[in-house]
């Protein structure tokens, strides 16, 4: 599929040990100077400026849950909801009803952007829900996302949180079991895949109750994937905290083994701020080659920076993250270059979404795609960014003909707000670093106010 595993792994190890790569100059046809903001309405410019200014205040983001709760009691449900729809919710969310989502998707498509829908449902350890009924209800919501995504245009994609369909507590338990030889041998990709196919879960390293929930969860995940494949929708499985990621990767690889035969329907997420990211990526690609299944990758830097550092300090174990921003950037570019070369060899069996708000990474990808002869609109390499953020980059990519997806949560104000708050708290460093986008929005607004050409 991607060349012989031994030679490929040798290249990976050589790249990992070699000198840091130098960034390529930006693609000549792209400019991130904000000229594309002429496509935005005046209200979108004003709202963006307001929301970005507020999001750049660490104290406000940190206290957001309390402030939202108090303001809801003071203002009442209707006024509170209206204010949020006019600000944060309107900036980052597609809407509540399918008709509203459809309007947002249609507007994005007119701008050359594609939807990457996400149901804002997830669970963390300690947030255990009310039994299997909660996860079964989520399956219906996720299948609804599949249906909406299928209507979103060419090469549709959607995001999936495993912890919407499987207990975060069990994900942590499985991840711990994978840390010892017995659990690693028993909880294999083959056995997990067999349970997805209908075999009974009988893992000795798990309790009867854990086996029962694992079996129900794996069947849910498999049915959702089957629905997505039948609808022609690619499923991007999100990574989360390091203490659950081994379980998430195991489940995702098992889904890949079952469904990624003709093309990559299931994609895994790799967080480049983790020190072992390149090594894990190389192992998983070699596994895909040996087993003969296609491989899809969502490449991110990572969103849980402060939380991971705090957990490592409190738990007394080594920090799993790269020590500096520069080291994370080097990690991202090494993984990116290796994947681009693999896509160039066989874009049917290896595909990539560059999920980054970093202009240098986007420009480097564009340049390498040109050098490697990768089609900009073929879907084998695409870009992903959050709805309402980094639009000067997204719109420039879309207008130049690249496949660019905007990550779009949808749902009621009450359902989506906890998700938005958590994303804001996880991405404080990103939100505080959007000064350029604010400046570009302000410049375009003044251009209109002063009637300049």
**Content-based structural category:** alpha/beta
Number of helices: 21
Q: For the residues shown, what is the average pLDDT?
A: 87
Strand fraction? 5-15%
Biggest beta-sheet profile: 8 strands, parallel, barrel
Write a brief structural summary.
The chain has 453 residues and is of the alpha/beta class.
Topology of this protein?
Elements: H1 5-17, H2 42-55, H3 58-62, H4 64-75, H5 77-85, H6 88-92, H7 98-110, E1 114-118, H8 131-150, E2 157-160, H9 168-177, H10 181-186, H11 189-196, H12 208-231, E3 234-237, H13 245-259, E4 266-271, H14 277-291, E5 295-300, H15 305-315, H16 325-345, E6 350-355, H17 359-372, E7 381-386, H18 391-399, E8 404-409, H19 413-426, H20 428-431, H21 435-449
Provide an overview of this structure.
The chain is an alpha/beta fold and 453 residues long. 57% of the residues lie in helices and 9% in strands. The protein has 21 helices and eight strands. Strand 6, helix 17 and strand 7 form a beta-alpha-beta unit. Helix 8 packs parallel to helix 12, helix 9 crosses helix 13 and helix 11 crosses helix 12. The chain is globular and about 70 Å long. The N terminus is likely disordered.
What are the key terms here?
single chain; alpha/beta; eight-stranded parallel β-barrel; 8 strands; disordered N terminus
